[in-house]
Amino acid sequence: MAVQSQGGGAVLYDGLLPVTNLPQWDETAATPHIYQAHFSTTECVPMFQDLGIQFGTVRVASITTRGASAPGVTANDAFIALGFLGGATTALYDLVAHELAHCYMFGESLEYTNAGNESLHEGIADMFGTYVESVIQGSVDWVMGDDEPAAATEINRDLANPEFNCFSDVESLLQQHDRSTPLSHWFFLVSAGDPALGINSLGMETVLGYIMDALAANSSLSDYSNLKDAVLGVVELQHSVCSEEYTSVARAWNEICVGNTPICPYTITGNTIVCEENNVMLLCINGGLPNATYRWYIPGDAYWTANGESGTNSFDGNCLYVDQFGDYPYYPQFFKVEVYSPTVGPAYNQTVTVRLIDCDGDDPTCWEYYDSLQPLMHNNEGQPESTAEHRLDKTRLTIDQSVPPQSVHWIKGYDIMGRLVYDRLFRDMRDEGLPSRYGMLMLQYFDENGKWLGTQKVMPNR
Fold first, then answer.
1. Of the candidates 215, 123, 212, 219, the residue with the CA atom closest to the CA atom of residue 173
2. Residue 313: partners with Cβ closer than 8 Å, 6 or more residues away
């Protein structure tokens, strides 16, 4: 059976093309494995498109032999082959995405010629496989091929609990799949986080973004240390060496025994989850750089009184002592407090997220607050007024006209649990839109100086 879909669809090839006179295909014309191979691939390809990875035509071979493979790419067309492991099909979401990831990396000129770059291929492919499966099935698991226990047993790769979690244990191995397991464990650490190791959860999509940027910037990656340097370079460029992101990524590399990357020479201590009615917060520099002075900056209209000053967003000192917060229409409120040292420059900038919560429960949540405004946001027919339109899709976002689009520089999105899930330049959203997998979001808009401009509730999957 051969089926071709344009624009990133799948073409299934199984040697001699079967034919049928029946109104639909059944097992007399093609095996269930062929159908599953085509279906799983068709489900996975759009997940790569959401990441900005475009294939031409994807050709899927249903084979009767062992395992799965990605023969490569030609003129932007991808070729993968899906067979069996332990008698179980390999046409599973995570394994299909794993093979498609190989095609993507071939397209990025990452070679597959020796134990080093082969290990990078396999480890990164497991990252993509885990991520794509999590998006499709709506939950995360870290075991490759786990939907077929027989296949999972033969594959034996658990990103959370690998057989090898230190590069020194596998450096001399020639088997690329075993040699890749510390790398995929690095992905687990920095995606899921490990508080005991001081590694914050950055999320799979963010970490994959770092990997993709590293591949795009350097096609001569040959082993773990090269990938580490490339990824850290990307994170430092996007953030700073003292950022939460850089610190977490570096600690994860150190944890899997790839070099010993120095961590930011100072930390910020103090309680970052604060009751709004208490009006007290203390953050301090711990450690520090020689002869350094520090300045604390709170983006947006925070209206805080700190270090004896009010009416400003910038406070000097080794500590930030807040004794008065502003009044806000709902809680929780999130603030990304930035620390800058004028004496050493921006390389050691650091940020910490402060969560201001309503501990005594006498204030509305953001959902309650905006639900109370719904009658004001619709006309008599129940349709949004043109002056308060808030429609979001993959290519276009129209925001409330009370917020001038030309003023918006940065946008943040919080999910229904109050977690920050979107934090990037506004122009990127205008160009790309939000992936449809997000549910209801509360978006906050900021200008280029970090001043808060407005807040909006949206449903990107509607």
1. 123
2. 297, 298, 299, 300, 302, 450
Specify whether the CB–CB gap between 179 and 223 falls below 8 A. no
For the record, the structure tokens of 455 come out as 């807040």
Domain that holds residue 94: 10-107
Shared domain check, 334 and 226 = no
Give this prediction's pTM. Answer: 0.66
Distance from C-alpha of 232 to C-alpha of 286, rounded to nearest angstrom: 24
For residues 348 and 398, membership in a common domain is answered with no
In a domain, 261, yes or no: no
Residue 437: helix, strand or coil by DSSP? coil
> Is residue 336 in a domain?
yes
> What is the spatial distance between Cα 320 and Cα 322, in angstroms, rounded to a whole number?
6
Residue 213: CATH number of its domain: 1.10.390.10
Ranges assigned E (strand) in 223-328: 266-270, 273-275, 281-287, 295-297, 305-306, 314-316, 319-324
Q: Does residue 120 lie within any of the structural domains?
A: no
Of 209, 228, 255, the one marking the end of a domain is 255
User: Tokens standing for 168?
Assistant: 């020194």
Q: Which residue has the higher pLDDT, 384 or 286?
A: 286
> Token match 């773990």: residue?
224
CB atoms inside a 10 Å sphere around CB 386:
9
Total number of domains constituting the chain: 4
**What DSSP line would sit under 175-240, residue for residue?**
-HHHHTHHHHHHHHHHHH-BGGGTB----HHHHHHHHHHHHHH-S---SHHHHHHHHHHHHHHHS-
Q: In 3-state terms, what secondary structure has residue 140?
A: coil
Query: First and final CA of the chain: distance in angstroms?
Result: 35
Residues 131-146 have pLDDT tens digits of 999 999 999 999 999 9
CB neighbours of 403 closer than 8 A, spacing ≥ 6? Answer: 445, 453, 454, 456
Indicate if 133 and 250 belong to the same structural domain: yes
The verdict on 278 and 327 lying in the same domain is: yes
Task: Write down which residue in 357, 378, 405 finishes a domain.
Answer: 357
Quick one: 242 and 291 in the same domain? no
pLDDT in tens, 50-66: 999 988 889 888 888 88
